[in-house]
Amino acid sequence: MEKIEHTTVSTNGINMHVASIGSGPVVLFLHGFPDLWYSWRHQLLSFADLGYRAIAPDLRGYGDSDSPPSHESYTLLHIVGDLVGLLDSLGVDQVFLVGHDWGAIIAWWMCMIRPDRVKALVNMSVEFHPRNPSVKTVDAFKALFGEDYYICRFQEPGDIEEDFAQVDTKKLVNGFFTSHNTRPPCIPKSVFRYLPDPPALPGWFTEQDVCFYADKFSQKGFTGGLNYYRAMNLSWELTAPWDGLQIKVPVKYITGDLDPTYHIPGTKEYIHEGGLKKHVPFLQEVVVMEGVGHFLQQEKPKEITDHIYGFFKKF
Amino acid sequence: MTSEVREKKIKTNGIWLNVAEKGDEGEPLVLLLHGFPETWFSWRHQIDFLSSHGYHVVAPDLRGYADSDSPPTHESYTVSHLVADVIGLLDHYGTAQAFVAGHDWGAIIGWSLCLFRPDRVKGFVSLSVPYSPRDPNLKPSDLFKSFGDGLYITQFQEPGRAEAAFAKHDCLTVMKKFLLTTRSDFWVAPPNTEIIDDLEVPSTLPDWITEEEIQVYADKFQKSGFTGPLNYYRAMDLKLQELEILAPWQGYKIVIPTKFIAGDKDIGNEGANGTIKYVKGEMFKSIVPNLEVVVIEDGHHFIQQEKSERVSQEILSFFNKLRNITE
């Protein structure tokens, strides 16, 4: 872990903290919510050993990267702009891209609007859905799952931060990372008053890991990460030019079968029966990992490394 | 001249656009995008010419103009919105790839189309306004500040200000001030002066436009007002976003075949750092490598009207060349 280099890169008007190691073709790892470069600690080391330059930033709003104050600065176009600037500053023309959770959404959109910068993509946990021109993103989730659905609860600036603040950060982190609950995450305010103690830590997530995340999020807060959700409807408006356009990059998609996203009604059919492939015609492989939850790159680091490497080495 | 132009309303990107059309629907589609403060009528000569030379010509009133919808807030007028409007039009006609020409704001939309959806553009002709890549180190508001408070773009920012200034003149006069301008500076008004008061109306009309034609514009703007068109400037969002939505295309090369046409006396061609010098320079060539440049002597801003035959020929020959058709 000590061999991982930490640098700050100026890109798209922000300072971005980047963890990197190794030399060779570049693999860019994009974390999700509420996560950090640290999610990829295992893959950074393994890919350096495999002869790649592995790079994992703290995305805008997270960790040691800048957090512009307004949620309007967190659209898909802003984050992709950050990454294009990062690649330019590294002098890298094309990357292998890996995304998880929000990082997967960003990765889909980077492939949509700048396919020329991506050699191949391994994406995890969140599949690509084309924009529905009739319904804004957040409005669609509200109609589907109600106003206590986490995405809806995350909308009002300050509201969910107040709820989070009632809970010890370490307990919150443990709850986020280790849950294998597959129900759609609905979090009415009452949930935070009586949050049960999480079960004992699983083997793949140590006390040290909990402390690392708890420290960073105590310092930084959750608002930066929450701003991605708050910018969803604005991103919906701004991505109208790409309606109907397919993602034309070679893709491998991986999910755990205990990931709540995998259990959203219709998702399994969408992934396995051609829906996803219609929009991502170069989708080459789909992997569902049994008994694995949302944070699969931490739960099964070796398997995930093997899956990613097995795909990228084809190019 | 415009009697055989068909006008119809098309739903695109959540709004209705009024679209003028001429020519055989089976022919390749040419999309013509007007500027500020104009309507599809600015393209009347090219609509006739191109449609009689083997093209299906489509010219919308853009969002905010004339008989098209005008969403109320300036946040609905970003280049994302404008490009999505255009994509919706192409989808309506089932056109996989179109020939596109844009003038002024229409050129900005065209360049953005080349960035966002190069897959939908066969070739692009830009009149008057070149591609200006976003400079991450120079915010638009700082650039504009360097021209002083009298810069028209700055004056157009505050909701209501320009509308009130324009309203002191009748619409016909407002249109004459814009259409007939021969100024080549970047339109900076003296202190305490609104740009609309600073623009002059010549005592006689030039030979390329009639009173009746200017009245066509005046009638449209009398009805629709100027807020929609001004919103394009307000959506540059100089206080917050500063065109940040263009960040993903930092350093992007536009390799689609393009042609730039401008009059040598167009706005911004005065002085050593003018637009034409920029377009012919090394920097521009490095980001728009597949480019032809045509400078029309004695041409001013509303070039496709002032030098209609020349512009029509230049557009036709460019698109024909891309189809391997020679005269």
TrEMBL record, chain A:
Keyword Cell inner membrane annotated: no
Top-rank EC class of the record's enzyme: hydrolase
Keywords: Hydrolase
Gene3D superfamilies reported for this sequence: alpha/beta hydrolase (3.40.50.1820)
Reaction(s) catalysed by this chain's protein: an epoxide + H2O = an ethanediol; (24S)-24,25-epoxycucurbitadienol + H2O = (24R)-24,25-dihydroxycucurbitadienol
Domain AB hydrolase-1 stretches: 25-301
Listed pathway(s): Secondary metabolite biosynthesis; terpenoid biosynthesis
GO MF: epoxide hydrolase activity; hydrolase activity
EC number(s) on file: 3.3.2.10
Alphabetized InterPro entries for the sequence: AB_hydrolase_1, AB_hydrolase_fold, Epox_hydrolase-like
Superkingdom of this protein's organism: Eukaryota
Cited PANTHER family: EPOXIDE HYDROLASE
Function comment: Epoxide hydrolase involved in the biosynthesis of cucurbitacin and mogroside tetracyclic triterpene natural products (e.g. siamenoside I and mogrosides IV, V and VI). Cucurbitacins have cytotoxic properties and exhibit deterrent taste as a defense barrier against herbivores. Mogrosides are nonsugar highly oxygenated compounds used as high-intensity zero-calorie sweeteners; they also possess pharmacological properties such as regulating immunity, lowering blood sugar and lipid levels, protecting the liver, and acting as antioxidants and antitumor agents.
Similarity-based family: Belongs to the AB hydrolase superfamily. Epoxide hydrolase family.
Protein's name in the database: soluble epoxide hydrolase
From TrEMBL, chain B:
Catalytic function, reaction form: (24S)-24,25-epoxycucurbitadienol + H2O = (24R)-24,25-dihydroxycucurbitadienol; an epoxide + H2O = an ethanediol
Domain AB hydrolase-1: 28-306
Superkingdom field: Eukaryota
InterPro entries found in the cross-reference section: AB_hydrolase_1 (IPR000073), AB_hydrolase_fold (IPR029058), Epox_hydrolase-like (IPR000639)
EC code(s) of this entry: 3.3.2.10
Pathway(s) it belongs to: Secondary metabolite biosynthesis; terpenoid biosynthesis
The keyword Kinase is annotated on this UniProt entry: no
A Pfam family recorded for this sequence: Abhydrolase_1
Keywords: Hydrolase
KW Oxidoreductase (keyword) present: no
Function according to Swiss-Prot or TrEMBL: Epoxide hydrolase involved in the biosynthesis of cucurbitacin and mogroside tetracyclic triterpene natural products (e.g. siamenoside I and mogrosides IV, V and VI). Cucurbitacins have cytotoxic properties and exhibit deterrent taste as a defense barrier against herbivores. Mogrosides are nonsugar highly oxygenated compounds used as high-intensity zero-calorie sweeteners; they also possess pharmacological properties such as regulating immunity, lowering blood sugar and lipid levels, protecting the liver, and acting as antioxidants and antitumor agents.
Similarity section: Belongs to the AB hydrolase superfamily. Epoxide hydrolase family.
Protein name, as recorded: soluble epoxide hydrolase
Organism for this UniProt entry: Brassica campestris
